[in-house]
């Protein structure tokens, strides 16, 4: 019988799949699978053979459709949670050599704006121009700091371990099958399916992505690669992905290396680089990417991978060069344009940054963050007519309170710049209304309170700011200045030391410490 478009049902399901209408495709396949055998076909030929092929095709197609509904690209999906950061058993060297570790903020290569100009994350790296999963969480040094990490993925809880994140991702798959799981994994004979390569690949992706059952997926992949006499590179990559999810990074590295020997693939290089970055070996990952570029010249994902690593290692100038190389190959690459624009802005070139952000606007990017950045660039480039209209548009496009808080905070800076301190005070207050753990707003409010002569309010605000963001040097320095003014020299010295620890190159902090030491010597 023909479907609603006058097509044979299986062909109709395939048409839905090709047009990415996965829900409709799964429904048509379900109807095919639920029919009694007598209704499946009406035609000549070996009946049962044809029936079996039809059922197999419908089962395979439904499996692929359900997988696509919850599929997330493993290369970009990489969130490092509290368990991975604090309970890390893969530590190789506690004190890494400069420029060889992502975990120590002190190992920077320089070449970019200082923390006095460009804000940093709690791991000591400058804030990037493009938010990625790996740049959201940071690398806290203590459990307390990890729990205080800014919320990611806009959930009400701090990001836990990666496996927990994947489990929550998998729970969404229950919505795709209201009647229960499509395949009962506990009753599945994996050995039988491993001997049928076409079915095995679809089944593996279903188990791995839809059911999030890494152990069964690993068992199936091991049996399938054994059946292929260890000659199929695809299965080796899948085994590597399973090991990576389970935290067995060295085993994953072996599988990805073996797969690369059999078949040179860009995706495999990216997976292997992910393993090295998780093992905190950025130099090895850089070498891998550069070797990959020899074999795949001009491959955008590899050049972008190099730029990201340099950015995480604080080597901003090298990162900018590689992002420019990305734009030579793909001049519509949003991440590269955003990161170069951000770098120009913090290098005191707002006019050039404005060109990059306008380019994003011309490409069709239309969101709160872009108009927020356009407003800042217009203000610092002295194009005041566009500043407030950009911020108004950003407030209108804000999708959550966090974005609204960022816009009000920047408006506070604009108000300080034009000398309207009452407006600045209101803007910073509105920032805290939208996000009550905004450390920078607490710090700036404290400065305004100090100007009004409200010493106690300023001290309380600064203490809040320094406890929320111990990686920022400004609250510590302000506490030191405030304490020195009121004669509390011991507290001033302690705060100044914390400020120096957060930003060793801050001249005012060094001068204050020198003055305090001279004063203590006189006593």
From TrEMBL:
Pfam families according to UniProt: TPR_8
SMART domains: TPR (SM00028)
InterPro entries from the UniProt entry: BBS8, TPR-like_helical_dom_sf, TPR_rpt
Keyword tRNA processing in annotation: no
Top-level taxonomic group: Eukaryota
Positions of the UniProt region annotated as Disordered: 104-146
UniProt keyword list: TPR repeat
Transmembrane domains' residue ranges: none
TPR repeat start-end pairs: 439-472
Biased composition (Polar residues): 133-144
A GO biological-process term: non-motile cilium assembly
One GO term describing the cellular component: BBSome
CDD domains, per the entry: TTC8_N
Name of the protein in its database record: TTC8 protein
Species of origin: Struthidea cinerea
